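Something for you to look into today, if you have time. Could you write out one complete protein record for me, on any chain you like? Leave the record below and I will have a look.
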Amino acid sequence: MIGNKSFPASLLDLPTVVESYKTYDDSFLVKAADIGQMVMVREDVDPAPEEVEYKHGLTPPMRDARRRRYRREPDLNAELVHRVEKDLISIMHGVSVIPNA
C-alpha cells in the first residue's frame, strides 16, 4: 500500500540466486545479500501468475536461464568413458597410446 492505494503483488522465485553488492567508498564492493525471490507488482486487471517461479530472471540475458543452465546431462557409454580415462592415464605416464582401428 502506497498512500491510500493498494496494489496486487505476488512473491516469485528467481531461476538462479542473484548476488547483491554495495560500496561505501566507490572503489571496493562488499557483498550485501543473495537474492532468490522478487515481489512482482501488477495492475488490478492483470491475473495473478499461476507459477511460483519467474523463469526469465531479472535481465534479458537471463531469459530461460534454468533451461539453458541446468540441461540434462548427456547419456555416455560407460565403456567408452573407461577406455578414454585409461588412455589419458597412460599418456600422463608417458606411454604412447595406439588408437583402436
Q: What stands out?
A: The mean pLDDT is 85.
